Amino acid sequence: MSAAPQVAAAMQRAIDEHGEIGIQVAAYLNGELVVDESAGVVAEGSDVPVDSETLFNVFSVSKAITATAIHILAERGHIDYYDPVTRYWPEFGANGKQAATVYDVLTHRLGTPLMPPGVTPELMCDWDWMTARLAESFPLFEPGTKSAYMSFTFGWIAGELVRRADPKGRPFREFIAEEICGPLGIDSLWFGIPEGVDHRIAELKNMAIPTSAAPTGVVSSLAIPPAVAPIQQVYGRDDVRRTPLPGHGGIMNAASMARFFALLSGGGELDGVRLLSADRVRLISVQSPPASFDFTNGVAHRMSIGAFHLTGGPLMSPAGTSKTAIGHPGAGSSVGWADPATTLAVGIAHNRMFHPSTHEENVLGPIGAAVRAQLGVAE
Fold first, then answer.
1. Minimal CA–CA distance to 315: which of 118, 149, 116?
2. For residue 214, is it within any domain?
3. pTM of the model as a whole
4. Domain range for residue 342?
5. CA quadruple 281, 284, 287, 293: dihedral positive or negative?
6. Tally of domains within the chain
């Protein structure tokens, strides 16, 4: 792997000109790691440099991996997208959710974006409590009829589906380790970190508190309550770091993130290991029916039917404009994506939390452009 001076320069500009603290960028092309760059420091005011071993909280980038676990089970015939969730999880049908399908989960049309009332970091770490509360919850609308992005709740719902559809009944963390990370040789991607890696995790710089009110009719403050907000005081806790949070709790480095996405950019295969068929990768990349209003954030997400983000929105700005790219951003704007048309897969992880509302505000966009320029890959 050769140096990537254009990428390194773009990363340094983000630090010098836009206040970034620590950044990692990794990219695979044709299944080979071709970029693995680090810049900055592990915490504001620190003199410890970010290196390739540094780990980051990447929040909803996690959803891409969790969704892929469902797609692997579908590939093997253990789950069907159009089955009701109750086929696998009977208790979930309570209070008007009996007709909700796995497809509704993947397309964020389930109607259950709200975290349970009274949730705390301790309760969020209790898998059984969270899944029981979500199973008995009332949907905001008839499942399948409207859109409400499940910022956090996606994780427990999709993760419990993985556990229940898995013939071995493995806990979600074990399924990811044994069916994705193990076969693909991914060594620094965790849902619940093991012993001995705490010192590698970069410290978050929290986002500024928004000064404008949320749009009328949205439930973002209930989907991500202040008690479990994506801040260092919560996600730097030992119990939270060690708990599998499938929708927003992934901790990884950029190289492991990019290696995961290289599976998708390779049409479901990496280094001779095939986890998904090329046809399934094409299927899960198809755009889901557009929604004019998302009840969680007030802005409809451009997403695929497989629970991946498509290019177009500010959070996916680093991925450019390719119509074939799929990926997922996280709170704070870490992002990973795959483009099967170009075989490019990229992971960008950082520790300065921000939320861009325009492409111009996403200071990681030029880094994605530098990756493509460095590698001679079209937008």
1. 149
2. no
3. 0.97
4. 5-209+225-375
5. negative
6. 1
Residue 216 belongs to some domain of the structure: no
CATH number at residue 305: 3.40.710.10
The percentage of the chain sitting over the pLDDT mark of 90, rounded to a whole number, equals: 93
CA 160 from chain centre, in angstroms, equals 17
Which pLDDT value is given to residue 379?
78
Token readout for 125 is 């770490």
Q: Extract long-range pairs of 35-42: CB within 8 Å, 24+ residues apart.
A: 35/1, 35/4, 35/7, 35/346, 35/371, 35/374, 35/375, 36/1, 36/254, 36/255, 37/4, 37/7, 37/8, 37/11, 39/8, 39/11, 39/12, 39/15, 40/11, 40/15, 40/350, 42/202, 42/203, 42/351
Instruction: Answer whether residue 293 is part of any domain.
Output: yes
Distance of alpha carbon 213 from alpha carbon 368, whole angstroms: 31
DSSP state of 369: H
Structure tokens at 136: 């008995």
What are the DSSP E strand ranges found in the chain? Answer: 22-29, 32-40, 56-59, 189-190, 250-252, 269-270, 273-274, 309-310, 326-329, 335-339, 344-350
Q: What is the pLDDT of residues 364-374, one digit of tens each?
A: 999 999 999 99
Does residue 43 belong to any structural domain of this protein? yes
Task: Give the C-alpha separation, 75 to 379, whole Å.
Answer: 30
Q: Say how far apart CA 27 and CA 8 lie, in whole Å.
A: 13
